[in-house]
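seq/struct pair 1
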Amino acid sequence: MWVYMMKGDLSIRGLTSDEAKKLLNKYGPNRIVKKKTRSPLEIFLSQFTSPIILLLIVAALVSLYINYTNGEGYFDSILILIIVFASGIAGFIQDYKAERAVEALQRLATPTAHVIRDGREISIPATDIVPGDVVVLRGGDVVPADGTVLDGRIDVDESPLTGESHSVHKRKDEKVFMGCSVYSGFALIEVHATGMNTELGKIAAKMVEIKEEETPFQKQMRQFGNKLVMLTLFVIMITFFVSITKFSIVESLMIAISLAVAAVPEDLPAVITIALSLGARRMAKRNALVRKLSITESIGTVDVICTDKTGTLTRGRMTVRDLWFPGTGSKGLSELRSLAIKTMFYCNDAKPLGDGSWVGDETDQALKEYSSKYITEEGERLDEIPFTSEKKMMAVLHKFDDERFVFVKGAPEVLLGMSKYIVSNGRKRRLTAKMKQEILEKNDELSENGYRILGLAYREVGSRVRSVQKVLDTGLVFIGLVILSDPPRPEVRSAVEDCYSAGIRIIMITGDNPRTALAVAREVGIRSEGVITGDDLDRMSDEQLKDSLDAGVNVFARTSPFHKLRILKVLQREGHIVAMTGDGVNDALAIKKADVGIAMGIKGTEVAKEASHIILLDDNFYTIKEAIKEGRTIFDNIRKFVDYLLTCNVAEVLVVLLATLFLPYISLYPVQILWINLITDGLPALALSLDPPRPDVMKRPPRPKDEGIVNRKLALMIGGIGVEKAIIIILTFLVVLPLGVDRARSTLFTAFILYEFVRIGVIRYNEKLASLRDWFANRYLVISLILSIVLQFVILYSPLNEYFKVVPLGWFEWEVLMIGTILGLVLGILIAKVVDMITHESY
């Protein structure tokens, strides 16, 4: 068998193809099993399960049967089915696009790995890796399976599992885990677990066990739909049994169908779906990919955001913020700065990429990015002592033409212990105990503010020196401190302030140390009464955790995956609607359990994305704030067009019901009600879904968790204005009745269309907009209202009037209609004022 030779005498043997094939049959593909995705047919059929949709389908089938029996046309039946189908198509398109977008993101993962097979290093699909394989890892690779280092040295990013943002150094006999990225180095690992048996797989398995619950919006819509259907069925039964005493069975059924069509806002599912789809599209433009359509609105109800720190609140990469040199004088500072830059550049293992960036340990990358602005590569490295967690330092011996230097970086306390000299005011002086104490105090001060601090030291040596260790033993010259941090994103602070103005609490949960976490929280404006660590959480009961949260603790550091989940459960038990952000495998359980789970699109693992409701394509907290703003706007608009549609439907039901009780003929035919609800009411309702955000959208608290779309204020508005509208329309009908039933019915039919202006006027009054310009900010609404009137004229004064069973109106009918419209607007605003006085709820 072929032998893979490393430095030294160690020999590593790989598997043969036959051995690998047998093991693949035994253990299966190296793949994380995701939940089964829905087929396009399943997605499409799921759009037709709401009670409102089912009631409409039944009404269409009954109407179709009656028309078939009487030998009449099928126009109204076909209209109902078109409405139902259009609603389903709109929902299907958005859900299907979201699922395909997520699959595309998943395909971005590294698909191959390098293994030793049949006497050579080859590239194979990562899914073909088996236990016992020897995998070759280099800087930039992703660890394809769990394994143990056989030989070599690599720096690994374990934040997907641990949440900690710094690199971890792995050497012989240490474990590496699937899904972690390799910063730098070279190593061979022997695989001991693949697929669902890896640590990543175990977390994924637990995630699948968590039942996906309905979103708050889904619950509200289901309850609203059920109540509406039950009420409609009750009214239909009463009306049918009353009408059968006056009309034939067929006429009674027609009246019942008319009432069903009048009571059910048949375009409500379509308008809601379209509103959510448009909202999801706007969110996508703002870098928030919505995986589930109902979440588009639900994120607007969030009152707590549990956010990760690294990459979400911060840039996600270390940056050199400043250099600090001991001593009081300015003389010799340029020389010290030059030495510091050389040390940062040459005592460094980061490697350049073609695009000008660097690959390697995040600290090395930061040092190279800073120092490469001032110098370029010269000379050669003769010897080195690599960084280890035990030594806490790195040293190199570098040759420049006729000069040789030892450059050292590491923990300040370690370098101070190795240093005998210091440069002050341009002169090399003996490093005293007092100077060391001053430097350590400065180090502590900077660390308290959340910075990561590195010490720098050097020594110029003779041409015969070839060993770094010998120089370290004779003493170094201390240069100064490098101040590093992962800086906050510049736009995050304003986003945090907007969230506070909107009544949203922000909690930071991170794997980083408490000092850094608290410092970043202060820098971005997160308010917290102290910080709690994972160890503290382990000693606390749930009741004590609740008390700490109630006391205002909003920063949690050194946390594990289960700490995150526990915090979430305590918050949810207290009635909060929680958004949970994260990027790692460790976040997946909490992301899925959250009311709104948010995964990172750039740094996020596939498991986290699979668990999420929303994927942030830019990993930015600011995008979460924008998504919440969009969600609130969507709910405002949904509430407005529900108000608009139901007011019209209440009036229609009352008109049909009263006409059935007191008149010897049908007041409105099903096709006329369909026209009112679908075309003339549907267009303005759809336009309302495009209303811009209200000025106070992020200046009011989240609505209560148990508050549905129709709250007490809206119910009073719908009922009061619906009754007022019905009374005015019936009076209009009675005034025109002496001219004939057909004219009176056509006038009544047209009155519903003109009353749109009344409802829009009252809705705008309820919004308490600052200027008349705001009333007309939605040009689509203005166009839709004009189009509704134009279409009504076409129906009245063209051959189409035969299909809709109407006749042209004269001047007298239009005068009556205009008086009724003006009277309705005045009474509508009065009703709105009265409702405002007796309720204190938002609109």
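seq/struct pair 2
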Amino acid sequence: MQNLIILESHAKVKTIKKYLGKGYEVMASMGHIRDLPKSVFGVDVEHDFTPEYVDMPKKEEIIENLKKSAKKYDRIYLATDPDREGEAIAWHLADILGLSLEEENRIAFNEITKGSVLKGLENPRRVNLDLFNAQQARRILDRIVGYKLSPFLWKKVRKGLSAGRVQSVAVRIIVDRENEIKAFIPREYWTIDALLEDINSSIKFTAKFYGKDGKKIEISDGDTAKKILDSIDGKDFIVANVKESARKRTPAPPFTTSTLQQEASRKLGFQSSRTMRVAQQLYEGVDLKELGDMGLITYMRTDSLRISDEARTAAAEYINQRYGKDYLPAKPNVYKSRAGAQEAHEAIRPTEPSIIPLSVKDNLTADQYKVYKLVWERFIASQMANAMLDTKTVDIASGDYTFRASGYTIKHRGFLVLYEESKDEKEDKNTELPPLKKGEILKLHKVAPIQHFTEPPPRYTEASLIKALEEKGIGRPSTYSPTISTIIDRGYIERENKSLVPTALADVITQLMRKHFENIVDLAFTAKMEDSLDLVETGKQNWIEILRGFYTDFDVTLKKAEKNMEGERMKIPEEETDEICNKCGKPMVIKTGRFGKFMACTGFPECKNTFDIDKTGAKKTADTSNAGKDGNNGQGDGKNENQEEQEIKEKCEKCGKDMAMKTGRFGKFLACMGYPKCKFTKPVVGGTEGICPVCAGKIYARKSKKGKTYYSCENYSTCKFWIWDEPQKEKCPQCQATLFLKKGKQKKTYCAKEGCGYEAVSTE
């Protein structure tokens, strides 16, 4: 019997095919193959929200190959990812290939290992319609919000804006925090620290002012601090009480999607998109030489803390062998997932706990090694014994007042021997305290009053925002990273170091949404909607009823907003600067366009001078050829491709005029000085480097802003093909497309054409 297995990702094809051997062919859908159309709404509201699914652009060839291949095989298995989106892809594949939904042809595996793949094949099931409907309802819900609300924002604020069910709430959370910071009024307070010494051991330590008569006292001003200092002046510091106790610290549970993103942000400085990209690679499989191709971690989109018995046993064996029985808990550690978690999944863990990170370091990229080490250490530590601490709190009397010192010593390190979780909040440093006894007089070295002011709540980082979204029930594991990327790409949020800062545009949009679409940006409403979609997944709620209930109110709200804002347009505030226009001498202001911030002359329209602003805040010369094209008072959008002109000794190949070096969105390029009549451009370096695998256009070598060479299609504006890897002279033996060279520990040539999958080890 000949069997065909269809996966989502091509990266898993080679590994899984090796596990199965003869009698099995493995192909990939390369992600989604169908979706709602881009150009029209695509949802028939009048007929129970029936979606109009269409084949995705550039997927026609893949679909055709799958259809042809399906006819050759006796049995077809749908092995897409084990989540809602994977179930939706499986449903669409079954529909396109004419497979029966009554047939048990859906297989899933939580990890790409031979045992898991074979176990999945032994236990096929039907496509889960509840999972599919949950994903379908979520997609249609997002289409309703995005497709109906975005045009409203275009008319009332600016073209190119977007609204989203989750992204709008995320923006509101960040805007609200920024408003808290702006409204914050610092409050003065004082502390008093006494540097003391135990005469017997000569150990110095710091005790902090606590209060009086066992009650804590807040020192609100300098006068109060001075009165306390005057009161204890010349008085002895005597140990009044010593309290010792034992405390335990429990290990953090293994990673879920959100906690992995948070910890990678804190420990590694990774953005969530980078973390998920690397985790995907580790899940799909890497070449471990002696061990061959295999996935190193389990599926990385999960909110479950469940661990298989096999994995727990393997972890215990490693801990016992490496650290000894004292580092194993009396009973295995079991962690409870939050309500609504998909318990069919496991937490993120190493597929083989015995594969320690250092043993495979040479087979991984730097990022892969860091993320695998993080996952491995977190999982192993989660199965280790508690850390045991001996804590000590000492109250020290001076006159009528009490000072307090606290510290601890580690009695048994437990899981801390391997791993300690990072925190957003700053923790007090451990103070080593001497063996003090009640009644002992201490030597005072100095006592110092210190003025402080309360600080506003910190701005959100990616880690703390993801934590907040999860705690408030906004979105689900697969949405956190794309949501953050979207609100940054759309210009609602900017990064300042690790902080997420709202732009003026975000403030305007949030004001509008709160006034006219309160439910869309209401945290409780959005969380309740997520809970409803979870009920669809378990078959406890009808997806059409959820959509009908939402749409009825939303449609009324939208029509009311359009009526109330008729003829009204919200203006994005301009930011004043100290810059003076170098053409007319008038002040310059910072405006926000489709591509971010730019500096513009207040003398517009008489003076159309603008400057682009880079991420450092520096300005760059720009012409005004885009004036009047984006709705920002006709002063362009701050992202012209005519920047940093530098004349060179080269003539235009079309009209013979001089060429100039310019800098655009994708680095430097040469452009004709005869623009706009002549729009000839060419890359700075190299000539034709190959043929584009997407549209068959010419590939040129180009330079990024950082000076790194990359390669992109001459038709980039339409086909969007670009790549870091170097094109080769050789053609793909399977499809004759240009091959690319991936450089690493082992050089490989591969074909970038979708659906081909050819690769070979380079002999160079």
